Amino acid sequence: MKKRITLLMALFMIFGAITTFAQKPFAGTIIFETSAEGTDDPNVAAQLAEMSQEVTIMGNNTKTVTNAMGVGIINITNGDYKLVTTVIDIPGYGKYYIEQEAADITKKFETSKMDFDYSTETKEIAGYNCKKVNLKITDLESDEETTLTLWVTDDLMTGDQINFSTYPGLKGYPMRVEMPQEINGESLTIIQTATTVTPNKKVKASNFLRPSDATSMKDAPAEIRTAFGIGDSEE
Predict the structure, then answer these.
(1) Does the pTM of the predicted model rise above 0.85?
(2) What's 122's domain CATH number?
């Protein structure tokens, strides 16, 4: 169980990262697949193979629905109001949500610095032309640096605040994210890649509302809060 939770938390960070999409703003869905490089662990490969992820977008709004290792995660972002709602559906326990407002998101980035290096290298992903961006994230407290590789497109016509909660300042929408992670002492790279883009003008604002049957994470059982690294003073 410990290994499953460790990998789940690594994926949770990426989903959060990857969920966050102008003439006419794009509306529709994008399907992503997940893979890993740098590991021979069959358990990791099997867990990733069981995953599914669908992102619904309308302007500066995104809703990412992910099923991973039996746990459902819904991540909803609103770039216009700077609001992020994460809903975790845990079998046997129910649905619990965590909300982050503008002040929470600003605080999250206070101790880090992001440097985007836009290269001339390009590739086509899901039918869209993408350019490579090397992102260096520096922890201002420890000076520790992490480098991610993003492949972004300017052709989707997403809202200009689509990346506010993940990569503030990034130009374009990431269609592929390559993120280094250490899982149980093993260094590997987890990769999220868009496979299918389906425009849909019928997407409505109601698609991005928090589920009415979700309970605040502060009221979740202690074992659930502990599994997701949430203390008594956090929500």
Answers:
(1) no
(2) 2.50.20
